[in-house]
Write a structure and sequence with these properties.
The complex is a heterodimer of chains A (about 900) and B (about 350).
Chain A lengths: L4 H4 L1 H12 L5 E3 L5 H5 L2 E3 L6 H14 L5 H7 L23 E2 L4 E2 L21 H6 L32 H8 L5 H8 L3 H13 L9 E3 L1 H4 L4 H14 L10 E3 L6 H6 L6 E2 L3 E2 L9 H9 L11 H13 L23 H9 L5 E5 L3 H4 L3 H8 L4 E6 L4 H8 L1 H5 L10 E6 L8 E4 L4 E5 L12 H16 L8 H4 L7 E2 L2 E2 L1 H9 L1 E2 L18 E2 L34 E2 L27 E4 L4 E4 L100 E6 L15 H4 L6 E4 L1 H7 L6 E5 L4 E8 L6 E3 L2 E3 L1 E5 L33 E7 L6 H13 L26
Parallel strand pairs in A: 1-2, 5-6, 9-10, 10-11, 21-27, 22-24
Antiparallel strand pairs in A: 3-4, 7-8, 12-13, 13-18, 14-15, 16-17, 19-20, 21-28, 23-24, 23-28, 25-26
Helix pairs in contact in A: 4-8, 4-11, 8-9, 15-17
Chain B lengths: L13 H4 L9 E6 L8 H10 L25 E8 L20 H14 L42 E8 L7 H5 L5 E3 L5 E3 L9 H5 L6 E2 L6 E2 L5 H5 L5 H5 L5 E5 H17 L6 E3 L12 E5 L19 H27 L1
Parallel strand pairs in B: 1-10
Antiparallel strand pairs in B: 1-8, 2-3, 4-5, 6-7, 9-10
The chains are: A alpha/beta (about 900), B alpha+beta (about 350).
Amino acid sequence: MGSNMAEAHPVGFQWVMEAKARGTRVFHVDPRFSRTSAVANVHVPLRAGSDLAFLGGVINYILSNELDFREYVVAYTNAAHLIREDFRDTEDLDGLFSGYDPETATYDPETWHYEGADPTGSSPGQEAPAEAKQHARGDTHGAAGPTLDGVLGKMASDPTLQHPRCVYQVLKRHFARYTPEMVEEVCGTPREQFLELCEAWTANSGRERTSALVYSVGWTQHSVGSQYIRAGSIIQLLLGNIGRPGGGILALRGHASIQGSTDVPTLFNLLPGYLAMPSSVSHPDLESYLESICGGENQKGFWCNANAYMVSLLKEYWGKRATPENDFCYDYLPRISGDHGTYRTLMDMIDGKVSGYFLIGQNPAVGSAHGRLQRLGMANLDWVVVRDLAMIESASFWKDAPEIETGEIVTEKCRTEVFFFPAASHVEKEGSFTQTQRMLQWRDKAVEPTGDQRSDLWFYYHLGRRIRERLAESSDDRDRPILDLAWDYEVHGDEPSAEDVLKHISGRDLTTGRLVDGYMDLKADGTTSCGCWIYSGVYAGGVNKAARRTSRLDQDETALEWGWAWPYNRRVLYNRASADPQGRPWSERKALIWWDPDRGEWTGHDVPDFEQKKPPDYVPPPGSSGVQALSGDDPFIMQADGKGWLFAPRGLVDGPIPTHYEPHESPVRNPLYPQQGNPTRMVYGRRDNPSNPSPPEAHSDVFPYVLTASRLTEHHTAGAMSRALPYLAELQPALTVEVSPELAAERGLTHLGWAHVITSRAAIEARVMVTDRMAPLRVQGRTLHQIWLPFHWGTVGLVTGDAFNDLLGLFLDSNVFIQESKVATCDIQPGRRPRGHELLDYIRGYRERAGITTDTGTHVATGSGVAHVEEELPS
Amino acid sequence: MKHTKSLPKPSADVAGDAGHVDHPPRVGFFTDTSVCIGCKACEVACKEWNLVPDDGFDLLGMSMDNTGSLGASTWRHVAFVEQPVPLGAQTSGLAGLPTGTSAGTAAAEVVASRLRAAERGGGELGTSPLEVPEVPEDLGMPTFQRPGDGTGAESRTDFRWLMSSDVCKHCTHAGCLDVCPTGALFRTEFGTVVVQQDICNGCGYCVSGCPYGVIDRGVVDGRAHKCTLCYDRLHDGLEPACAKACPTDSIQFGELDELRERAANRVDQLHERGVTEARLYGADPDDGVGGTGAFFLLLDDPEVYGLPPDPVVPTRDAPAMWKAAGAAGAAFLTAGVAAFLGTRR
């Protein structure tokens, strides 16, 4: 679901086809019949943006028919835990949970907690809900669950799962109305097809069998995206498909190393290994920071050792300068003071608060939501640095942006100075990619880069070196963090050694100089350094384990000798759950790791994701905390209570249980609750970020169609790596819009003719493809049309066209600040779009007809009367 | 019609027949279209390795196919076939939705009408733009109906999207090879058929000699071009570029005997799983070209993919024709001699 795997991940899809050849049934749930559907056993259509109603329907099917893997659920999840008496569900509050504040569009999650948990609440350093939301703290859960106070010792629970306030029953009530009929009503999926999927999924799960769930950005890029994934996780936990071979919930990442770019992050709110970027308000010193991430002494799990990970990171950054006396240079770290995500930064560019911009492998003029705003933002900067393989729209916007034609950007007056640096490609440099399975794979350099092309490593190493040289004489305190950096990488000629950087990331014992074996070796006393704790051990013993390439034919299916997966080369996370509470495989067929009583350790095909010597019957002594407090049958060792969370007491901004909300822009009313959309979504209510109206607002019929987008195999993201290449450009030479024959008839569109698509932000033109692969759905008694476009086109390259992203506004998931780019509403008309000033007038006409103001779409709590709009700046 | 007097039935040892001594086993492609995901990696890998030029940036409107057909600048071609027809062991999920008439025929008619109006009547497919009039012309397309308007009979009942990567067949009995007057086309030690551009004189006999329409003359040099089965890579013990790039092993390279066995097993497996449409194309040594070195597993009749249903090498009847011509000549000669002798009498 939410993945067009065959088209967007064709290389990984070979394994799906291999599984299919061995008899696996493949279901593809998607609004559009794609190349993935063409080779699936079953394609299940649904309305874009209705996935959570669908998944909720699956959960309801499991719970109401008691098809869960009960032994697994009772032992390994929090199903038996009781929830506080004062918790209120969306069933009680018209689609809201208890704790909602309409003014800040934020929840206070206090009532979402377990009964019997420490009532004193948060430990020092915890951010207030509104602050945490501004910092997108959901991002910090990439390697571990959130802190959870007071969950040591015996929690109130009912292993029979009958107590009305146990998680199992809370879930059951929450999803009771997500019936097959409701799924049909909300998603447009015929109920027989929905039930066929439910039957197959549940029948193929349990003791003897497992099912895998794959998703991609078709799930994440929604205003409720995090909760889509939560819903998928709940299904997989209920069916016993987590931590077991052939199971899992598998996120397919975008670029070759997008996983790597969150592990060793490029995000404003993260340090390496999902350590939070400190807050200017809540984390004045290292102690308060560590308290907030380790959770003090009152919870379980390996996250309690985060002090060792953090201190080792500071030692890696500042080397000998980092001492216990100066908090290991903690004060040198930047602090965040609110939302500095990519979209907030963009609006700050528009508002004149940002002066410069580095673009590395990123082409926001085409590839980011609200393309017009992206280009206007860049045109209001002092400088932009672009490093790319080819000249891209984000480097040439000042002369060829669509806004030149409308007069919104005037080349002669555009103040932005653009520095374009040609980059070395992946075959012209060495380094590692981290892929979807958290696996690092090393690449050697195949050819030398030509001309001025240089690796990113070269660029940043020398940029840092030059800045440090420039500042060398400075006595200004603000320059100390840069001057005191260790910056001690091996250099061959003038090229920094990527292998040496990987050694720094893997970590060292500073007393002996030895490379550490893994994060268990890291210390909080400053005697170890490590650039990213989860990658610790990738260079253990001086061996670049990412570079291992033992053929799969020369090892078993787990293939532990190919590359290296974090953490500790474990291929299946939480694989303790592949064995029963007594440590025996649930079935021989699905054996992965097990307890060997003779040797007194865990063993098996994979590296155990559990303490090697901790027996299954281990019971923590009273008063223990952290790792010691994990029982021998607590498989989820990075969770604060050692359990898989069917109900998330903490960690999510928008509720402890997934709930169907309509997309920010939807042609239909939410049939499940009076609350229409995600009540915590980020809307950035500004004149330059208008929303199409959605019910209960008036005039949603001006934009009657559902718009969705995805990738083509033949092009890569914003097109810089494909539209410039003749062999790829000829395969998909033009932007097309796919419509059903019915919609073509309704709007008078002809195959191969022109049409243009309109939202309140933009109108773009494309050639029409009339195809049976797009089919209308029946939703709430009416026929609903969806249209699809690929997003790869722009103004530069061998093949050019309008950019899909211009159609989108900026409306974000509140947990992780991902934009809702997989669904919006739109209109479509035959013929080309107007040009120049007429284009602006045309779009304005649509806005006026739809009655759009700055307020439109910003009443995130339906009917609250609170509009989340920003103050207009004097222009 | 019996062809007892045609060319001797080609032997299984095509390379040996061509004079190669101690040659390696015959190799070929087994293209299993049931696992093709239409990624076109084969087209790109082929062009990259063999330095085949692009052939224009033209939107063809033929589903996701924008290279049109095999030709001098397209040695691997992926066909995309959208049809309102069910596929065995698949639920498309589109039947039962509020859908009206299928778009497939209408869309195909748009493309076909462009081709009929085009200068080369389709010869330019994939190599030059198919002009689209700004004002839609009346194509006699079936009227689109709004959902629910249909009586049911004209509604879509199901859907399938077939994909298939086509290539030179490297025939056992290769028409192009038979008719080449210069020796530019030759049978390699691997049993494949390769054209040498430095010898080719551009006569074009091979183009009409190919029953599949594979070989084609280049627009720039006028010489014949087609798949070489990566002859240079075979010399180095490498598999052809397309097979190497294919992520799902839809294109399998190997020794022909082994491939044929594998393909037969695959057909059995698919039949067992309810894909009863699965059949092999080109795997029969008794067909009109003596079986092909590149053969296919298809999910419908070959015509559906644009392949000839019963290809026959045009030179098959050459001996009979020459014999007939010879007999006629002899008769003329006899008659002439008789006439001459007669006058003498």
